[in-house]
## 1
Amino acid sequence: MITDSHAHVYWKTYDADRAAVLERARAAGVERMVVVGTDLASSRAAFELCEGELGLFPTAGIHPHDASNADPETLAEIESLCRRPECVAVGESGLDYFKNYSPRAAQVENYHWHLDLARRLSLPAVIHCRDAHEDNARILGEFAGTRGVMHCYSFGPRELEPYLEMGLYISFSGMVTYPGNDENRAAAAIVPEDRLLVETDCPFLAPQKNRGKRNEPAWVKDVLECVAEIRGANPQALAQATSANAARLFGLSEG
């Protein structure tokens, strides 16, 4: 079994062939997917999709890009979704200082709200961090004991320490397969096996051999095989380990 720990398969680019995308994933051994919401509409869509699909598990949250739209009514609806028994995590939320689609102050406020909610509900947080390592580590330090995952980890080994010390999981995406990303591969080599996850972040960040195309969950197998090669590990054993890690973090059932 392989678990894609971060996918957006409700995305409109799948509307014409979503069933085939899910079938290809299962044929590739990807039996579980965490379907991650990024705003209110997509969070609702994640729950609707997961309701009728075996092995799909929803989350709800407001991405830092949309932090400016996180008004009290929207946040109340996100919290309501997160309180549903099928919800496996809060987020994704976090900081994105690369695009800065929302002001940084709004991103920080939104992130604080999500981390507080995750703590109150005893759910893990799905954390987005791009070009914001120092602020991210500082804010997480204010929420000691928070469980969660650094999704689509984009940094190198030097930035790992605070996240590992906090007990967070580290998830690698198709970025780890890109030729110029030696630092990311160096990080993938040293994350403890019991903290390691793999993901697609589909439809984004397709692995190298399909780079530039719409990504899909079946291709998380390429990420897994790349990370296994980096670590000198057996791919099947690593699939089992990362899937067990995802089950432990998100409380996933076998189905």
## 2
Amino acid sequence: MSPARVLALSVAAAAAIGAAVLFAPDRTAPPPLDQHVAAFPGLAERLARAATIEVARHDGRTTLRRDGERWTIAERGGYPARPERVRELLVGLAELRLTEPRTANPDLLPRLGVEDPLQPGATGTLLRVLDGSGAPLAELVIGRRRVRTGGNLPETAYVRRPGEPQAWLAEGRIPADHDPNLWLPREIASLPRERFREAVIIRPGAEPFAVRRGPDPDGELSLDPLPEGAEADPDHLASVARAFEALTLTDVRPEAEASGQPAGEGRWTFTDGLVIHVRLRRDGQTLWLLPRAEGGEEASRLDARWRGFAFQIGSWQEETFSPEHATMFRAAPPRDAPGPDPAPPAPPRAE
């Protein structure tokens, strides 16, 4: 065998041995009392005192704060977080099990993603749950996830408690995302188009106009004013009528942080007395929607969530919330237009 071949095999063998030492159970470290010991014994009971959740990496963080029965996102001005996602995180943390010890060598921790997550270039995530006084109820560095190819197998990840050198393989799901947008509920409103009654659109420097539905829930939509000799464009009318049918956001900010120029405003009226006032601001390609609701209990619930916030929506939705009047109609075809000339009679066939 050539010297080069021997050297290549030696390097490969050394790499394999190093990987085996890193990813195999660390038999030199004290094993847990059993093979599925809780990462944080008794945490479920203590979570009733949880007041803050911090999810941090070197390139960003999310801070969730408890406000009564809900959790809010500090980086988004205190906008409510998705409750099911917060619940999933806390339940997953309380149920997390340490299954096998891994390396305790500080030089090898980066290979598992459990080095200090706040240092530049780190790939892990620091999760902290604090009580009302700021004391930690649970702290965990979450590193690389392990892919389980078999069916019905629980998720696993490499973890480490801050301040401890020992890394572990843990079993359980811990959806800790450091991007605040991943904690946002996407829905702004979901009002069926059948509830729409009227929308009054006001664009800067233009006369207001209205889109209205007939008296029935599925009544015909109309445009007011409609120029003489024109007919309303049904697609554009329908777009205005269903503006709040499945309205979602891409981001949210406190109203004071939504910069830009006024891009229109309007008033949408629905059944059951619900009225929604909207204002638009455009900052380059970013479109901000500032809604406000009035008219009963439903409006109070919506306004409690909306007031003081601006919602980023797709820039194309400016045509829905602030369309130009000229785009809402088209020239009507002549009513008595002559049809095509009749075809000349066929010549007689020769006998």
